[in-house]
Amino acid sequence: xxxxxxxxxxxxxxxxxxxxKRSHWSTSQQLAVKDFRxxxxxxxxxxxxxxxxxxxxxxxxxxxxxxxLQIAESGAVDKPxxxxxxxxxxxxxxxxxxxxxxxxxxxxxxxAFERREFSHLPTDDIALQKLLGVKxxxxxxxxxxxxxxxxxxxxxxNGLTSGYQGEGSKTIVPAWARAKITCxxxxxxxxxxxxxxxxxxxxxxxxxxxxxxxxxxxxxxxxLVSPTSPQAQAALRALGQAFNRKPVLMxxxxxxxxxxxxxxxxxxxxxxxEERRVG
Length: 279
Hints:
By secondary structure, this protein is an alpha+beta fold. The protein is built from eight helices and ten strands. The protein has helices at about 70-75, 80-90, 110-120, 125-130, 145-150, 190-205, 230-245, 260-265, and strands at about 30-35, 50, 50-55, 60-65, 155-160, 175-185, 210-215, 220, 225, 270.
């Protein structure tokens, strides 16, 4: 069976739909995004919002809508559901690292300052494990759970669909299998590059016995505000005075693509925090 080339298109430069002239703003100005987090020992002053790359529907197909095969015949063709599962299973190694060449090339590493700040957070791995209801935490080796969820890129399977899923059994072999996939990006990663390395790798490992199709998605870069910037320092001073304790910085995920346009078009940084009370 032929392997179809991926057909993915990402949105180019987004033109903001608001009539603002750049001359009305100065680089010292900033925007505040509603959502404040007031914690006992941690804050997130808009250090980062996650970027995202979306692959709409990577799917593997055979020729017919549904293959009703006899047991003897079903061994003569590859099964799209099995092929897709095997391909997806090869995209992460046993250490939690994404096994796609080039995926981590542009990732901005955590600084020593950031890791010191993270170490001050009131984290408890056992409590997190119980809260999530899992027997064991899992993530990229070499990084703490806080670092894994806030400063490392991911490859996510958002949905899997194939074959009969109603009550009881039905002895068919489905002709197609589909997955919805996204990648969470971190500072310095570019959606177009991640799209390319992911698609190139999927084409490389797709078995020749099935056809692969990838439909269009969208992409957005991660956004980073330096913790030493005047805006972040002003926020830290204000929070320190308000709560009479020194805030602790951390990166925090949450895709808000427009903040990059605020920076590029208006020259304005964005500070973000979420409302949450601890204790």
